[in-house]
Amino acid sequence: MSGSQAVAVLLEDRLITFNRAVGLLRRRNLPVRSIAVGPTATPGVSRLTIMIHSDEATADRAVKHLQKLIGVREAVAFPARDGVARELALVKVRAPADRYGELLDVVQLYHAAIVDDSPDALIVELTGSESFVLCGLRALERFEVVEVARTGTIALAPSSN
Amino acid sequence: MTELLTGSQILCRALVEEGVDLMFGYPGGAIMPFYHALPEYPALRHVLVRHEQAAAHAADGYARASGKAGVCVATSGPGATNLVTGIATAHMDNTPIVAITGQVPRAMIGRDAFQETDIIGITQPITKHSMLVEDVTELADAVREAFAVATEGRPGRVLIDVPKDVQTAKASWTPAGRGFGASAPGSTVVPAGHAAVDEAIRLISLAHRPLIMAGHGIILAGAYAELRAFAERTGIPVITTLLGISCLPEAHPLHLGMPGMHGEVHVNRAIQQADLILGIGLRFDDRVTGNLAAFARGAQVIHIDLDASEIGKNVPTAVGIVGDARETLAELAARVPARDCDAWREEIAGFVRPRLENFRGGLSPEGILTAIEEASTGQCTIVSDVGQHQMWVAKLYRYQRPNTHITSGGLGTMGFAVPAAMGVALARPETPVWAISGDGGFQMNMQEIATMVQERIPVKMAVFNNGYLGMVRQWQQFFHGRRYSATPIWSPDYVQLVAAYGVLGRRVESANDVDEAVRDALKAPGPAVLEFMIEQEANVFPMIPPGASLSEAIEDEPAPPRLVRA
Question: Taking CB atoms and an 8 Å cutoff, what residues of chain A touch B120?
Answer without folding.
Answer: 16
